[in-house]
Amino acid sequence: MKRVVVTGMGMVTSLGHTLEETWEALCQGRSGIGPISSFDASEYLVRFAGEVRDFDASQYMERKEIRRNDPFTHLAVAASRQALAQAGLEITDQLAPDAGVCIGSGVGGFISLHEQFAVLHEKGPSRVSPFLIPMMMLNAAPAMVSLLTGARGPVWAAVSACATSGNALGEAWETIRRGTAKVMLAGGSEKAVTPLGMASFANMHALSRRNDDPQRASRPFDAERDGFVMGEGAGMLVLEDLDFALERGAPIIAELVGYGSTADAYHITEPAPGGEGLIRAMQRALQSADLRPEQVDYINAHGTSTRFNDSTETQAIKACFGEYAYKLAVSSTKSMLGHTFGAAGAIEAVISVLSIVHGIMPPTINLEHPDPECDLDYIPNEARHGEVNVALSNSMGFGGHNTSLIFQRYQ
After folding, report:
1. Which residues are bridge partners to 258 per DSSP?
2. Which of 24, 173, 268, 400 is exposed most, by the fewest CB atoms within 10 A?
3. What interhelical angle do 71-87 and 140-149 show, nearest 10?
4. Range of the domain at 196
């Protein structure tokens, strides 16, 4: 099997429109969560989220393309262009058949769907946009990135709820390993803070209701957590066959060495007791990376700030890593970004790679009252400096999906 390296990354989040802006804010322990600005949420049970605010898609797309695509695609294109720029990669006619795209989203063009429902009810069926279907379909993001970059290799969308872009990266990795592509642009994008989205998740009692203190609402592993916070964003990575990357003199940032994907077959929204599915995902990732548990330095946890997730993930880490779990550094960057659903796995993969590059592990902010059931080292409230050679990133999704990715310092 071929080795796969990371040569470029891009990110758009509630903390910044570039990778550098987001990383700096994460290291400072800042929160991107605040009152909802995209619609009037005054009558909603939950009135705050981690929105991507004041984003200018015209830096990355032509006006016609912007009008004909949903904002989740705008974010995917932006993060992709950032990643390609960092990689110094142009997809030429010669490379195009060997360059692919895999971008996931949990709900796709949710904003366009919501807007066109309003048009249908207020103005009638003749006024519904003819572009609605290509705007809302989940594969719109990888299709548009393919169109704009010329990539003509394997191009598809992954979807597994909040594990989506973990799967997208893992399957892109497998695509390169088996020789089907030399380059894959892979990641996830989500922009689902809409009236319908907020109302449905709030009515599920899944969201925190700390409307009076939104920046402290996402508090993974804290005994006083009361739900997750909706977030938006996109994360993209350029993955390359090592031989191809060396041949073109690419900047090698890190190596993707392990991937595990499993299902719970237990419940549509709750994780399996003890995190049985996540345990197997982490074990498979370690096995595929040919690494021992004690070689992992840092885990970017799924860490959603919900009662079930945080305790279950803690149990899974302890089951997988044994006594070494108590020596591991673990943190949840959802405490600052909110939960970006289908984009979470890719955004957190980028953060995991950055922890290797900079020797900094972002904190879990708002961890003020540790839950006795969550008794690991979660890097509370302040970033930690330390050498990171191996970082593992977990993702879990409604439906019982689990993914684990392992990145390693390139040698």
Report:
1. 406
2. 268
3. 40
4. 4-247
**Hey, what amino acid is at 112?**
S
Query: Are 267 and 404 in a shared domain?
Result: yes
Would you call 150 helix, strand, or coil by DSSP?
coil
Q: Report in angstroms the alpha-carbon separations of 22 from 73, 214, 388.
A: 19, 19, 19
CA angle 55/59/62 to nearest 5° reads 110
Q: At what angle do helices 110-123 and 195-203 cross, to 10 degrees?
A: 110
Residues 174 and 76: their CA atoms lie apart, in Å, by 21
Rounded Cα distance between 184 and 181, Å, is 7
Domain for residue 150, yes or no?
yes
Place of tokens 């390359």: 240
Asked if residues 255 and 3 have their Cβ atoms less than 8 Å apart, the reply is yes
Q: How far apart are CA 369 and CA 380, in angstroms?
A: 10
Beta bridge partner(s), residue 92: none
Residues 233, 354, single domain; the answer is no
Q: What is the pLDDT of residues 15-57, one digit of tens each?
A: 999 999 999 999 999 999 999 999 999 999 999 999 999 999 9
Which are the catalytic amino acids? 162
| Contact predicate 231/197, CB 8 Å | no
- CA–CA separation, 27 and 357 (whole Å): 13
Q: Does the pTM exceed 0.90?
A: yes
**Could you report the per-residue pLDDT of 135-154, keeping only the tens digit for each?**
999 999 999 999 999 999 99
How far is the C-alpha of 49 from the C-alpha of 339, rounded, in Å?
Answer: 9
Residue with tokens 């989205």: 197
Give the integer Cα–Cα distance in Å for 352 and 393.
Answer: 7
Q: Which amino acid, residue 195?
A: P
Lookup: tokens for 184: 């894959």
Q: Which residue has the tokens 């930690």?
A: 384
195 and 268 belong to one structural domain:
no
